[in-house]
């Protein structure tokens, strides 16, 4: 596995691959890798001949300077984890200076999708995401890019971005990977104390119960209110809990096929997001 830090070196290698008729897949990450990231790498099996994983903690998508500083980092451990898979050809780890050189003045904005859910209390966050993803897709020359469904709003924004800007890359969605107690894998989980980590399992359990209540006929407003109260009683600060259409992210007042439940909540200073689709009837 090559470890590359500059655009110049990456472009040289990618150019060789493309000239040889190879196909390229990319998994953009901010590091602190876990099994969820490895699932993204695995999802590229049979779809590409070369795989690139990128690690870059993107400063322009953070609204909170402390959150940026606290974001877990460990490139050496991440590199060892990726090398052990035997499936990754390149780990690309550009510096902040490499990604945003002096005079950098461009932002990419996906209007509409960026102002709801996480965009509501994190203004500018998705501009930062769209900008860095645009750069990484260009730099890697990827034919396929894998993104997890845990960050479902991000996935929708990237799909729209790629479609609107005619980027020649396929976006591959990968289902959320969860721990045994249902908590979605996240680099932020490392910041919990053992007691908080146990508390955090309430989040997916409450979402599942909320969806089950809706399917059993409880009005959506009532089920959402009950779920919010459950999370608050469990120590969470709930930023939003909403039922939305998974294709358009538009709000829904009742459960229907293609609906998805979205939540953002903070526990012990750690902000978690999650989402679950309405289960398909057996």
Automatic annotation (TrEMBL):
Active site, renumbered: 37
Locations listed in the record: Cytoplasm
EC code: 6.3.2.1
Sequence positions that bind (R)-pantoate: 61, 154
Catalytic activity field: (R)-pantoate + beta-alanine + ATP = (R)-pantothenate + AMP + diphosphate + H(+)
Any one of the GO CC terms: cytosol
Residue numbers binding ATP: 30-37, 148-151, 177, 185-188
InterPro entries per the UniProt record, alphabetical: Pantoate_ligase, Pantoate_ligase_C, Rossmann-like_a/b/a_fold
Pathway annotation: Cofactor biosynthesis; (R)-pantothenate biosynthesis; (R)-pantothenate from (R)-pantoate and beta-alanine: step 1/1
Known partners and oligomeric status: Homodimer.
Name recorded for this polypeptide: Pantothenate synthetase
Species for this entry: Acetobacter peroxydans
């Amino acid at each position: 596995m090559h470890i590359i830090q500059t655009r110049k070196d990456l472009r040289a290698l990618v150019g060789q691959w493309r000239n040889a008729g190879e196909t390229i897949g990319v998994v953009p990450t901010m590091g602190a890798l876990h099994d969820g990231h490895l699932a993204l790498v695995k999802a590229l099996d049979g779809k590409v001949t070369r795989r690139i994983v990128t690690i870059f903690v993107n400063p322009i998508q953070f609204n909170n300077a402390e959150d940026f500083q606290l974001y877990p980092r460990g490139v050496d451990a991440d590199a060892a984890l990726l090398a052990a898979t035997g499936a990754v050809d390149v780990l690309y780890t550009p510096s902040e200076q490499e990604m945003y050189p002096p005079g950098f003045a461009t932002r990419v904005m996906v209007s509409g999708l960026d102002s709801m859910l996480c965009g509501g209390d994190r203004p500018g966050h998705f501009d930062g995401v769209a900008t860095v993803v645009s750069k990484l897709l260009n730099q890697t020359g990827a034919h396929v890019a894998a993104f997890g469904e845990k960050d479902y709003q991000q996935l929708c924004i990237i799909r729209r971005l790629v479609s609107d800007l005619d980027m020649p890359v396929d976006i591959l969605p990968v289902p959320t990977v969860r721990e045994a107690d249902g908590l979605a894998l996240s680099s932020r989980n490392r910041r919990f104390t053992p007691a908080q980590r146990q508390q955090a399992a309430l989040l997916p359990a409450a979402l599942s119960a909320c969806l089950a209540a809706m399917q059993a006929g409880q009005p959506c407003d009532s089920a959402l209110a009950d779920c919010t109260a459950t999370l608050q009683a469990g120590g969470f600060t709930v930023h939003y809990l909403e039922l939305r259409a998974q294709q358009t992210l538009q709000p829904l007042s009742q459960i229907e096929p293609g609906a998805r439940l979205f939540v953002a909540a903070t526990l012990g200073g750690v902000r978690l997001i999650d989402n679950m689709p309405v289960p398909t009837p057996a």
